[in-house]
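Let us practice reading a record.
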Amino acid sequence: MIRCENLTKFFDEKSGIYDITLQFLPGILYGIIGYNGAGKTTLLRCIEGLYLPTSGNVCHHDISTRKENDFLHIRKKIAYLPTEEYLYKKLTCIENIELATILRTGKSTLTDETRELIKYFEAQDFLIKRFCDCSTGMKKKIQIIISLIGEIDTIIWDEPNDGLDIISNLKIKSLLNYYKSKNTTILLSCHVIEFLNDFIDYCIIMQDGKIIEEQETKNIKSLEELYIKHIEKNKIVYPLIKNK
């Protein structure tokens, strides 16, 4: 179980997350939604251990992210996917995968699971390409594959479907349902509410660095309606197009 206890992370007076208390259980798929700057990425980075809290705490299996030496072995079991590209641009895709395998498992050969993921995302044909020469979708697939290297018990993905086509999105859903069946704790942030509809088990809505709504999706008729009702400027106004 993952617990956030009065979690606060300040960057300046106007940005950060404030006094968040949540818990995330194994075998449940959590969706975190909110507009740009709502605090989703900061929350996920705190949970992953990239950011240490300004105050409060994040614990995985009762081990705080503040205890860096104790938390290190837990962090190796977290499949973290950031929004930005982070791999070595001049290395080929397969070189990036091999390097990540060494760092995450201590082994120089790819695991069977990694080879299966390469086939699953049909990535064989562009493994020898330099990462910088790949399309946005190809880069995202390689980063997803790398995030799942090793023994995984927690998945934290920030905008995993960004840049992917319809088929790849369906593959992601199927893949995450597989990990959910293995009792993995799964946290997703996403701007595309349609991607989360009828998929996640629990919805968390963020606004201005705070949690403004959280509930099981079985009790929600429409994620979109639930989200819009919490946004202050919920009227979408289009400029008038004058006819010539």
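A brief commentary: The radius of gyration is 19 Å.
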